[in-house]
Amino acid sequence: MVKQYLKQALYMLKENRFVSVISIAGTAISIAMIMVVVLVFQVQFASFYPENNRDRMMYVENGTEVRSDNGWNRGSMSAEAVKECFYTLQLPEAVSGYALQLKPLSIPGKRMYKGYEIKYTDPGFWQIFSFRFLSGQPFTQADFDSGIPVAVVSESVARKLYGSTEVVGKSVIIDLADYTICGVVEDVSRAANTAFASVWVPYTTDCVLLANTIKENMAGAFSVCLLARQREDFGAIRQELDRQVERYNGMKQDNQINFMGGPITRLDVAIGSEAQVPVALKDYLLETGLLLLFLLLVPALNLLGVIQSAVQKRRAEMGVRKAFGATTGTLLCQVLYENGLTTLIGGVVGFGLSLLFFSLGKGFLLESADTSLSGEMLFQPMAFGAALLFCLLLNLLSAGIPALRIARQKIVVALKDGEEFTK
Question: Following DSSP, what letter does each residue of 309-364 receive, concatenated?
């Protein structure tokens, strides 16, 4: 029976091509509009390589404030502040301090001048992020403690420098300093902005970076990322950090450090938190939810009239079928299957359009037009399913209600196209 309904639905789509095209286009536009917004949010919030644990991550990025009677500084922290305030925490599963700088890379005997993103970090970085190593391994705690100049490079950098990913043990020169490559990882998208870099090295290898501090060695160039054991630990981690900050401030004479509202979660980052101040989720959902609803309803409501008109035109046809024994349920099921098929086709087309629009407009929607996109970033079945379900329900209601009214009419009224019904 279901197979027969689907055949009839496909036949009706071919029979009423103009109405079918409008219905599919309306559904596709509804899906595309909402999915573009959802895709932006997914890239900012959903977990993907190598930030596979975003739901358990916390951040202090440009949210460090150091105050004294003579003024204040807001930005990043020093390596000493990372060590004293964050490495001493017991509750997080892992903690990492890092600083990003743009520097030229070269190889022995070949001087190059293009700048690459170099991330100066620590061994905790490899515990927080799930990098896929093509060869070699990350630098170790012993490398970090001893300041040994080793480097992990991305696949594209390895190929750019040596034409191969088999480069473990070879040299890379970072701004005139010679490093030995210890590992090669798959390229990281700029969308994974905390993990992203072209090269990763121990920050203990750069004396200039470590010495670049002010405010009693409290402010510097470093940010911090933490990985909680579970999301329920966020509050407790903030409380433990407050105690460490109080202890650290007690070691200083004139300056006091604080991390404002931080560390913040990935959700706070995704919904536009500024200056480390968490954003109330209910306020964000109220504002963004109304926008999403508007984007869905504008094309969907315009589609309602088209669908209802198409159903009304089939009044006589449904009267004839009822005269030959078709039940109310049979007539209703056929209409619902037809609109369900229309919604499904429109949903697939809409999802494809959303990927096209998102890719073409990523320079505007994301931080950089150079951001690479992957399937795990873009396709989140639950988000697409929710948008498709909304359009499906709207279409079924717009077709089902008038179809049910017609199917319940007397046969003579339906055959006369409702003339007696309107008297």
Answer: HHHHTTHHHHHHHHHTT--HHHHHHHHHHHHHHHHHHHHHHHHHHHHHHHHHTHHH
What torsion, rounded to 10 degrees, do the Cα atoms 345, 351, 356, 357 define?
A: 120
Q: In this model, does residue 5 exceed pLDDT 60? A: no
CA torsion, points 236, 239, 244, 250, in degrees to nearest 10?
A: -170
Token pair 């037809």 in the structure block, residue: 338
pLDDT, averaged across the chain: 82
Structure tokens at 360: 């073409």
Residue 151 DSSP SS3: strand
SS3 44: helix
Task: Mean pLDDT check: name the lowest of 91-100, 111-120, 239-248, 255-264.
Answer: 255-264
Closest Cα partner for 380 from 126, 127, 54, 129?
54
Cα 208 to chain centroid, rounded: 35
pLDDT for residue 45: 81
| pLDDT: which is higher, 90 or 72 | 90
How many of the other CB atoms lie within 10 Å of CB of 283? 10
Distance CA 58, CA 120 (A): 19
